[in-house]
What we know:
This protein is α+β, with helices and mostly antiparallel strands.
Amino acid sequence: xxxxxxxxxxxxxxxxxxxxxxxxxxxxxxxxxxxxxxxxxxxxxxxxxxxxxxx
Length: 55
C-alpha cells in the first residue's frame, strides 16, 4: 500500500475499469492517539492501531 494510491481519481479508475476497490494504508504520522469515546475498559488506541487496556 502507498499513500500515492490514495487519490480519488485513481480509486475511481480502478473501480470502473477493473471492479477493484483500491486501498491505501494508514499513515500513522498524521494520526493522533485516540483517548475519547472508546469502549469500556479501553485506555487508548495508538496511531499504529494498538489498543491499550485500563488493566
